[in-house]
Q: What sequence folds into this?
């Protein structure tokens, strides 16, 4: 809104007043001209008329000035205000639009009222002299002046500085709907005819009045009455002196044309022949009458006197008409003034119509070139004003639309370009995920190899344990046997000891018993030898078992490390999957947002379409001037349709993005479930491996226990052998003793005592050995249980490994799906970006 | 029947509206504007073809369903359905249409009389037929015919909400009813 170059409020009011005053002069001229041309007033009436005009001017001017001030107050306020509020602007706008009409009304009243008042005043002052004709002429002059002036004033108030103020007000009010509501409606159909009628009234009134005043028929009738009057005044006994007196009287009446009185028998030759020829027939039957000569040479009246003389009073028709006919100068003046008035009026009317058309055309051309910035507008109370307001409304709506489209395009582009990084992140995440999966897969294969190695070792261990178990059972059996033998030995020793007393008496018997003892000792010795061999075997098996067990522990440790690595890989996969899921969710949400924006664009485009159609209708109704406008409307419609097509395409793309995002989310959810189960399986595998380690270590301890027991047993066995050696030695001594029985009983007794001690020792040792055997068997059972646990744990782990491998295969498959989905999403986003740029380039055509 | 104004120039502007699957044209001079579809308040005991009234920026305007006037199914409210505000002899009314298509400018030479067979049989719904390159010909509707159909439908207002087939049985000669029956 640029109000800087407008005039101030006082200047505006002064301009209106000046215009009114200026147009008062021709109006006054019209009224006075009317009076001068048509009224034949005595000087005192002229004086009265001028006095009336002067009084009215003095009384009415301030009132008129005040009324003019009132119509312009609101506008002056607006012009003077620094920052006018909305109410002031609206009031000024209404006043400005109403100004021409109000001023026209004021001007009409201002000329009708005084002529009426002055006429009434004149009638009251000069009742007999002021005729109805005078009244009528003055009133008609007033009407003509009032209409003419009001028309011109109204038109002048629509141009120049006033137009600038009015258009500035229109811009200040802005909203076309608001302007439409505020503006008074006046159709061109009403305005133009009333203006033209008002303007034409002046010459037409003049012509009518002149015709009434100076009609020839009136002149003829007047002349006849006049000549008859002259004859009536003529005395019956006419003599020359009386006739001369009558002539004098006639002359004294100030008639501009001389009347001739002629007696027919002494008539002037010129007139006589004429009258005699023309009127001979008419004279005879009547006493008096009037007539006019053919070709209007003269107008006359005749009167027959009793003495037979016919008197004729005649006047020259050419003189009369010369007096009565309208003066050519007056006609020229009338024609010239009418022409001038009409030309001024036509110029004003043409300006009133051409200016808005030019403004609208410039605006339409600007619009066609894509410039949507607010520009000059035009305001009027007629259809052109309506057209301008519709046009402004359309430009506003278009601006809003284009701004909306531009903003949407920006948003679309931003979202589309935001999609790019998202897709790249997704892509990177997918690649990472696949690498993780591959690493995990490799780890799994390694674990699987190691587990099968452990399984081999474990079965070998199992075999060894089976072997050692059987050896130990054998050993146990030998131990039992040994024990029995030892018991037998002991009882035999008891027998020997009890028999010692009888030994003296039965040496022979002793010798036999000694032989049996020697045999038993041999047997024991053999058993012990056998047992020692078994023990060595067991020892070797135990060592082998120990070695295997250590290897199991070692493998289980490395398996655990691998499982930990697997779990870490799984965690990485889960993180990548979570990121991917979040990214895809964001993508979906973005797609929904874009959908909402596209819906808005859709609505806006639909609105534009309707607007363009209405604009096309208005343009079509505007005819030739609307042609540029209709081209714009057509282009806007095309644009709206292109936008609609575009948004439909975008909508399709967004739906496919949403579908893909949904699919990807589902795939990722399945993937993350699989990852979770993989993590669980890996943790189980780790636990199984820990159990294996614990069991292997347990079995190692137990084997160590076995080995130490075996060593102890071997020691015990060695001890038994030694003892047996000593038994044999004893036996040998006994044998020697029996051989040397005779050498003394004391030695035998001592030998028997020693033998009993030895037998007791042997029994204790064999019992100890039996207990050791039981412990070994228990240990071996424990080892076997541990190995079985290892085996079952290995089987579990193997299952877990194959499940994990399957899962990894699946994850790898999903990764491929992800990659595909990512590629699709990337393509879609690229397309979206292209669409956004297209939209943007369409929008960039418009300058906002 | 007033002819389309061809004195000024040899082209005439027509506004195209879609009813059903076909396009119909009206002289742009008769069309004041085209507005979005809005809720039509029914007028009870009104002539049968008057659907009701709408509020057009403070002015109450009667609405006539162009589909039913032309003997086709009534226009259904949708995203693209419109109400064309038309003016004939100072009478303003709304015509409900399925869609507003475009404003087209045609050469007067492209206007053809409706088939003589139809006009001689009393057909007056179309003033002219416009050939279009690449698509079906368009009928230029006569607003007078629309008005006449509305006036004629005033005779049947008592039956407006009743069984319309009954009406067509009781007055089998009324052409409007036969169209209604077909619809």
A:
């Amino acid at each position: 809104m640029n109000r800087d170059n407008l005039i101030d409020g006082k200047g505006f009011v002064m301009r209106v007043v000046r215009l009114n005053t200026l147009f008062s002069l021709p109006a006054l001229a019209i009224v006075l001209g009317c009076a001068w041309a048509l009224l034949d007033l005595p000087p005192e009436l002229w004086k009265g008329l001028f006095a009336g005009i002067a009084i009215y001017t003095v009384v009415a001017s301030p009132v008129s000035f005040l009324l003019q001030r009132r119509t312009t107050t609101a506008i002056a306020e607006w012009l003077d205000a620094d920052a006018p509020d909305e109410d002031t602007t609206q009031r000024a706008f209404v006043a400005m639009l109403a100004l021409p009409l109000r001023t026209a009304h004021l001007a009409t009243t201002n000329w009708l009222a005084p002529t009426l008042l002055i006429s009434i005043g004149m009638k009251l002052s000069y009742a007999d002299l002021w005729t109805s004709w005078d009244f009528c002429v003055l009133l008609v002059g007033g009407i003509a002046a009032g209409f003419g002036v009001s028309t011109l004033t109204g038109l002048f108030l629509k141009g120049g500085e006033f137009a600038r103020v009015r258009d500035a007000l229109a811009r200040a009010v802005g909203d076309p709907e608001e302007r439409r509501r505020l503006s008074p409606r006046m159709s061109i159909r009403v305005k133009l005819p009333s203006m033209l009628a008002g303007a034409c009234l002046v010459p037409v009134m003049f012509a009518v009045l002149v015709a009434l005043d100076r009609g020839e028929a009136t002149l003829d009738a007047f002349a006849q009455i006049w000549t008859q009057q002259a004859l009536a005044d003529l005395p019956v006994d006419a003599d020359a002196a009386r006739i001369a007196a009558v002539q004098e009287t006639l002359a004294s009446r100030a008639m501009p044309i001389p009347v001739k009185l002629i007696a027919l028998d002494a008539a002037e030759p010129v007139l006589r022949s004429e009258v005699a020829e023309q009127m001979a027939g008419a004279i005879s039957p009547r006493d008096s009458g009037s007539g006019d000569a053919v070709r209007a040479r003269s107008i006359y009246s005749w009167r027959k006197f009793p003495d037979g003389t016919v008197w004729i009073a005649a006047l020259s028709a050419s003189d009369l008409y010369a007096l009565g006919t309208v003066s050519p100068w007056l006609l020229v003046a009338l024609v010239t003034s009418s022409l001038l008035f009409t030309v001024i009026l036509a110029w004003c009317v043409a300006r009133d119509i051409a200016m808005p058309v030019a403004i609208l055309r410039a605006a339409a051309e600007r619009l066609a070139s894509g410039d949507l910035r607010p520009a000059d507008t035009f305001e009027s109370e007629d259809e052109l004003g309506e057209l301008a307001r519709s046009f402004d409304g359309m430009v506003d709506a278009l601006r809003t639309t284009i701004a909306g489209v531009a903003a949407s395009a920006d948003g679309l582009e931003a979202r589309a370009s935001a999609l790019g990084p998202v897709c790249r992140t997704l892509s990177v995440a997918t690649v990472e995920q696949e690498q993780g999966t591959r690493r995990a897969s490799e780890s799994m294969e390694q674990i699987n190899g190691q587990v099968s190695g452990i399984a081999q070792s474990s079965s070998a261990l199992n075999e060894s344990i089976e072997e050692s178990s059987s050896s130990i059972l054998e050993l146990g059996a030998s131990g039992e046997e040994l024990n029995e033998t030892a018991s037998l030995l002991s009882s035999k020793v008891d027998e020997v000891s009890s028999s010692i007393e009888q030994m003296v008496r039965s040496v022979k018997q002793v010798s036999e018993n000694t032989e049996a003892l020697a045999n038993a000792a041999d047997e024991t010795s053999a058993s012990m030898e056998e047992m020692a061999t078994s023990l060595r075997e067991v020892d070797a098996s135990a060592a082998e078992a120990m070695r295997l067990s250590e290897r199991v522990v070692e493998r289980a440790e490395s398996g655990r490390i691998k499982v930990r690595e697997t779990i870490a890989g799984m965690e990485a996969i889960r993180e990548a999957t979570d990121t991917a899921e979040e990214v895809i969710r964001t993508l979906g949400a973005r797609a929904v947002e874009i959908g909402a924006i596209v819906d808005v664009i859709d609505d806006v485009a639909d609105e534009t379409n309707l607007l363009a159609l209405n604009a096309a209708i208005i343009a079509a109704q505007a005819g030739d001037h609307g042609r540029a406008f209709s081209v714009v409307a057509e282009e806007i419609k095309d644009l709206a349709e292109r936008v609609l097509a575009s948004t439909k395409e975008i909508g399709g793309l967004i739906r496919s993005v949403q579908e893909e995002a949904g699919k990807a989310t589902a795939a990722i959810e399945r993937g993350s479930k699989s990852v979770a189960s993989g993590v669980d399986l890996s943790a189980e595998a780790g636990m199984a491996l820990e159990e294996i380690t614990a069991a292997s270590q347990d079995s190692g301890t137990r084997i160590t226990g076995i080995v130490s027991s075996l060593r102890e047993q071997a020691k015990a066995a060695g001890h038994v052998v030694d003892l047996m050696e000593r038994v044999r030695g004893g036996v040998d001594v006994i044998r020697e003793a029996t051989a040397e029985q005779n050498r003394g009983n004391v030695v035998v007794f001592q030998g028997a005592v020693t033998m009993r001690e030895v037998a007791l020792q042997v029994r204790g040792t064999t019992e100890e050995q039996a207990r050791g055997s039981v412990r070994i068997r228990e240990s071996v059972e424990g080892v076997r249980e541990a190995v079985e646990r290892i085996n079952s744990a290995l089987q579990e782990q193997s299952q877990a490994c194959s499940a994990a491998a399957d899962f990894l295969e699946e994850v790898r498959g999903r990764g491929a799906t992800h990659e595909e989905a990512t590629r699709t999403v990337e393509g879609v986003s690229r397309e979206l970006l292209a669409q956004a740029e297209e939209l943007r380039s369409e929008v960039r055509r418009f300058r906002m | 029947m007033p002819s389309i104004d061809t004195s000024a120039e040899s082209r005439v502007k027509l506004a195209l509206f879609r009813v059903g699957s076909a396009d119909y044209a009206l002289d742009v001079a008769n069309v004041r504007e085209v507005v979005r579809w809005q809720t039509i308040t029914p007028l009870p005991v009104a002539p049968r073809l008057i659907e009701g009234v709408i509020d057009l920026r403070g002015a109450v305007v009667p609405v006539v369903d162009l589909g039913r006037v032309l003997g086709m199914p009534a226009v259904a409210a949708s995203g693209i359905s419109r109400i064309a505000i038309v003016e004939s002899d100072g009478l303003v009314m709304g015509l409900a249409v399925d869609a507003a298509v475009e404003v087209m400018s045609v050469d007067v030479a492209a206007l053809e009389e409706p088939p003589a067979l139809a006009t001689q049989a009393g057909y007056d719904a179309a003033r002219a037929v416009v050939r279009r390159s690449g698509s079906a010909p368009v009928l230029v509707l006569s607003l007078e015919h629309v008005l006449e159909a509305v006036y004629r439908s005033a005779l049947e207002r008592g039956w407006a909400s009743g069984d319309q087939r009954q009406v067509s049985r009781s007055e089998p000669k009324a052409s409007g009813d036969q169209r209604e029956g077909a619809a």
About this structure: DSSP finds five helices and eleven strands in chain B.
